[in-house]
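User: I'm writing a tutorial on reading structure tokens. Could you give me a worked example: one chain, its sequence, then its tokens, then a sentence or two explaining what the tokens reveal?
Assistant: Sure. Here is the example chain.
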Amino acid sequence: MQKKTERCKWPGSDPLMLNYHDKEWGVPVHHDLKWFEFILLDSFQAGLSWRTVLHKREAFRQVFKNFDPQKVAGMSAAEIEKARTNPAIIRNRLKIQATVKNAKAFLKIQESHGSFDSYIWRFTEGKTLQNQWRSMDQIPASTSLSDRVSKSLKADGFSFVGSTICYAFLQAAGVVNDHIVSCFRHLDLVD
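And here are its predicted structure tokens:
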């Protein structure tokens, strides 16, 4: 009999969530477009489940121009209004407006730091923080790291980047390894 693969419990049995957990979540990101995608998606998650956002990901990709911050920063009022009435995404006016604002702030960070990637990884000196959680209930919603990142992003003009949202995208983008130690992905992502 084949041994069952151990993984974090949060994906449940949803195939899209399982694929995201197994192939994406926690893998270190070093590409600015992927960073912008994770920040955008996690800002829309505020107050909602990740499953809801993940199932709308492709619609978000279409509405927000393949997650290209340059194109999102240039969205017209008509495009923003069209997004607000699009039932395929989360139609929260403030989050949509924040996305355009965040794209502009993202571009300024790229200009001043060379890339968003170099800006964000400086918080951990370029290293993934390797946590050793034994159960999901040990994983915090935010940390002193996410507090610092949130404060910095807000100072640089971002919205919808509270500490919990920041921790979510730091987890997603592999700045922290928060797979529980019994999950097969935990060891895969230890550098």
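What the tokens reveal: The two ends are 32 Å apart (CA to CA). Strands lie at 129-130, 176-177.
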